[in-house]
Design goal:
alpha/beta, 5 strands, globular
């Protein structure tokens, strides 16, 4: 008796794409229904850092600017009040690895169906597909909002 259960933790991948914006809105609505808390995670990776052919260097990447853009993205999608209830994290690494790691101990991982990369005709992006295969918790994949739908 007297044990207090921790609020459900919902992790959502954010990359600025319409799918990830819809995923963020979905995660916040879901968290409201279950009394959960939302953690918005953005991954950043220097191009070429996963290959052995050359040293990975990106002199133009500014981590502080990327963090500001993440905060702005959440604020733009959710408004000031909605954004204040979301914890934002910018994490270095491949998006799949970052999201799967962030989902450890989470009650749900929410991702958009297609992010910034990939082929425009693909129904499911590679990150969302791999996250669904490897996440340690249930995964919800959200399609972009359809205007007028």
């Amino acid at each position: 008796m007297g044990t207090q259960q921790e609020a459900p933790r919902i992790v959502v991948g954010v990359d600025g794409s319409p799918s990830s914006q819809a995923a963020l809105r979905w995660a916040v609505r879901y968290a409201g229904l279950v009394g959960g808390k939302v953690e918005a995670v953005t991954a950043w990776e220097v191009p070429g850092s996963s290959s052995w052919s050359a040293p990975a260097v990106d002199a133009t990447f500014d981590e502080e600017d990327a963090e500001r853009r993440l905060v702005e993205e959440v604020r733009t999608v959710l408004g000031e009040d909605g954004a204040s209830s979301v914890h934002q994290r910018l994490v270095h690494g491949h998006p799949v690895d970052v999201l799967v790691d962030a989902a450890e101990g989470a009650d749900m991982l929410v991702v958009g169906s297609r992010g910034r990369g990939g082929f425009s005709r693909a129904l499911l992006g590679s990150v969302s597909q791999q996250a669904a295969l490897h996440a340690p918790c249930p995964v919800t994949i959200v399609r972009p909002d359809v205007p007028g739908g």
